[in-house]
Amino acid sequence: MKRLLFVSVAVLAIIFLSGCSCIQEIGGAYFPAWLLSILIGWVLSLISRFILIKVGIDGWIRPRSIGYPCLGVFFTLLVYLIFFTH
């Protein structure tokens, strides 16, 4: 019974979660939406880093090698969620 439930949930997930790829046209060239999201997310994380340094909160972020990439991933996923999901 558990296997049947698992298989049916997996099949429903494949049906409902599959969709067309989001392609954006910029200057006549086609870019995938995830690529634009990554670029915008990392730019937003750099801007937020400069703001955090200016405000003086940057010293509280420990370890920075984990904190800022996580901030970049957060902004990337947020941009994709807001602008490119249907």
Layout of SSEs?
Blueprint lengths: L1 H16 L5 E4 L2 E4 H23 L8 H20 L3
Antiparallel strand pairs: 1-2
Helix pairs in contact: 2-3
Describe it:
The chain is mostly helical. The protein has one domain. The protein is 69% helix and 9% strand. The protein has a two-stranded antiparallel sheet with strand order 1-2. Strand 1 and strand 2 form a beta hairpin. Helix 2 packs across helix 3. The protein is flat. It starts with a helix and ends with a helix.
Features:
flat, 69% helix, two-stranded antiparallel sheet, 3 helices, 86 residues, 2 strands, single chain, mainly alpha
Explain briefly what this protein structure is.
By secondary structure, the chain is mainly alpha-helical.
Characterize the largest beta sheet: strand count, sense, and whether it forms a barrel. Answer: 2 strands, antiparallel
The assigned structural class equals mainly alpha
- List the domain count as a whole number: 1
Q: Helix-strand pattern, N to C?
A: HEEHH
Mean pLDDT: 83
What is the tally of beta strands?
2
Low-pLDDT sequence parts: none
How big is the Rg? 19 Å
Q: Assign a percent range to the helix content.
A: 55-70%
Count helical runs. 3
If strands are numbered along the chain, what order do they take across the biggest sheet?
1-2
Tell me what portion of residues adopts beta-strand conformation. 5-15%
Broad shape:
flat
Distance between the termini: 34 Å
